[in-house]
Amino acid sequence: MIVAVDGPAASGKGTIARAIARHYGLPHLDTGLLYRAAGLALLRGGGDPSDEVQAVAACALTGVDFADPELKSEAAGGIASQISAYPGVRAALIERQRVFAAQPGGAVLDGRDIGTVIAPAADAKLFVTAAPEVRARRRFDELERLGMKLPFAEVLADIEARDARDRSRAAAPLTMAGDAHLVDTSGLGVDEAIARALDAVRARLGER
Length: 208
Ligand SMILES: Nc1ncnc2c1ncn2[C@@H]1O[C@H](COP(=O)(O)OP(=O)(O)O)[C@@H](O)[C@H]1O
Ligand SMILES: Nc1ccn([C@@H]2O[C@H](COP(=O)(O)OP(=O)(O)O)[C@@H](O)[C@H]2O)c(=O)n1
Prior knowledge:
208 residues; alpha/beta; Rossmann fold; 5-stranded parallel β-sheet; 51% helix; 11% strand; globular; binds adenosine-5'-diphosphate; binds cytidine-5'-diphosphate; Cytidylate_kin; Cytidylate_kinase_dom; P-loop_NTPase; nucleotide-binding; transferase
């Protein structure tokens, strides 16, 4: 069984995807981490993000530590959003995502294009969203907890810029799949959002 969870930055898609994976005993892949890791490798290597060839080379992801806290930074999110618009970068990362999705027993993946490009035949698809100010507040709090405090206005501006870029790019833009279920978490706490999402997945799977 494949569950696809897509949505904009800090909408709560990772929280929901992890909860669904736990509930069904499935492996989970945060696909944003792949783009963040490629972006960070490029930056650390002194590469030029405006050069697609260099960005594609960074997608080898050799020796990447996916637990590196720097991957959670807004800088990594911004560079990820920039290089993820390159068709060559998307092509370089597609295979490992599809292999992960196709493993025996199934998987849960979250990102921007899981239901539309990576796993269009997923058994259940969710599109998780929330108002930009709500998402910025969550990301602001999260960054503060991680010791990466930024002005709120800067976090909101970053999120809005990233949303605009992710939605308008030609290659696999952020968009809700026609057969996805919309979960707006703006007024929902974590437990409530997870409960709504699980209800939607159960309904989609015909469990009730
Ligand atoms: N429904 C919610 N209500 C309040 N905070 C939430 C909710 N969902 C997620 N969060 C918090 O918001 C932050 C971003 O959530 P996350 O699931 O990582 O989002 P995404 O994967 O979309 O970037 C995390 O700190 C998370 O704990
Ligand atoms: N499947 C995916 C996942 C992320 N991305 C890109 O990678 C960036 C970082 O993704 P993320 O999921 O880690 O970001 P957050 O939602 O956690 O802020 C996004 O802004 C997208 O540009 C993508 O293009 N496709």
